[in-house]
Amino acid sequence: MGSYKMCLIFTRKFRVTEPGPVDDVRDVFEKYADGEAHMSPEQLQKLMAEEEGGGGGGSSLEEAERIVDEVLRRKHHIAKFTRRNLTLEDFNYFLFSTDLNPPIRDQVHHKMDAPLSHYFIYTGHNSYLTGNQLSSNCSDLPIADALKRGVRVVELDLWPRGNDDVCVKHGRTLTKAVKLGKCLESIKANAFTSSKYPVIITLEDHLTPKLQSKVAKMITQTFGDMLYYHDSETCKEFPSPEELKEKILISTKPPKEYLEANDVKEKDNGEKGKDSDEDVWGKEPADLISTQSDLDKVSNSINYLNQYDEERGSRDFDTSCQLQQAPEYKRLIAIHAGKPKGGLRMGLKVDPNKIRRLSLSEQLLEKAVASYGADVIRFTQKNFLRIYPKGTRFNSSNYKPQIGWMSGAQMIAFNMQGYGRALWLMQGMFRANGGCGYVKKPDFLMNVGPTGQVFDPNESSPPKKTLKVKVCMGDGWHLDFNKTHFDLYSPPDFFVRVGIAGAPVDEAMKKTEVKYDTWTPIWNEEFTFQLTVPELALLRVEVHEYDANEKDDFGGQTCLPVSELRQGIRAVPLFNRKGVKYGFTRLLMRFEFV
Hints:
Phosphoinositide phospholipase C; Recoverin, domain 1; single chain; 27% helix; 594 residues
């Protein structure tokens, strides 16, 4: 029973009710229990195979028996069962359990023996930063956290510390440096805790040949046999994630290219305008790391530092010295990287005898796709394309990743501390394939027609699939939130936003009615989505608490790859703004492809 003070005079009392079965649950139970009061393991197995699509190996009798035994153990606290079947209440408990009845598979199930460039790879940007891009601390902790969450590409910016040491920091800013050795040890300790598939370290190198030699020694000593050596300059095809399990790959520009890159740096640091992360769902939440206005002031204060560094850099990095290179450092590079030279069209040219990585800013990607869309896709069929945030995202916000995925870009580099809707999409994409950090690109991005034609995202085509999503009910907020978190005087008034992120033609957002004064809202509302590119569609779900006078309160979110959805009634766990799963808060939803 929850009590709420009203005007300091009287108290309103509301009972937190145990959620009973909704009509959809009753209907399914009656259908498969053949009108009886109990459902046997055989009947549950039939339901899992027929009504709910199996769910990735969960349709065997043995699995059905395991579920029945687990439900009885949890709900009735007995280890030895006088009966081995489920009542309607037991069945409802099973359907509303996020671990027993999740909405997507939790195992690796994509084909993992294709070349590495055939996969989208979970990629971090400036992985060492704890907050904003200008003045936050650098640390090994965010690197460890990202790897534990399944991120497979980690970025380190290497700068001299004095004449004989190397540190990791965001150059020409006020960020506080961290020792390279700490970062390398953190990668070694956490690289394969959540996924056995390869980790790629992308290095932004601002070092002399002497310090490059030191870095090569540190990397070799730290990782030893974990390091993968590969001459991508003379290689026509890259190994697969399966072949590279528990391997560390280094990706950076050969030392000579850093010198040349200084003359072709993109002029995007002062370019503002509408962010690509704004869409029909509204602006990003206001509680990002730091406000943009505050960081603009910090940016102005470090202009002198930038000018000083550029002057000093021209003295420190002598051309003849740099061209000597450090052979042991160059030997470490498994994936050779670079920025486009000679214009975008030249940068996207495919060399049949080499594999390389090209880096483009989010803005340059948009220009490349608009002008040379087919060339971008052809490039990514063999080579690696890395996209990174524009320079004005001082607050570590992110951009819409869909344009990169639609173009086949493998590495969409994100600020993992930049909480908001864009990062929720990224987290949703990489919940696919068991959360291993590698998602096989759909075939249409790899296919080449008889006359060389490739996928055109702008070409109009009829919907391939129709997805029906029913929001049945929700529960668990009273256990994860204080009773007055949403409203001082009454239980919350929840509503749900449901929509699609993906191809522009598939983008949509719909919402349920508001259910007033209840911790266990029942909506029973169904929505239909026509999907032209279901392979790259993400189902977006957000719960909000309606407030007539102020901004609606946040009540949880999730993002799920449509291609992985298990049909039928599923328990959908919700996550907080940072992407951390709540302990109890969840929705009961039904999915159907027609």
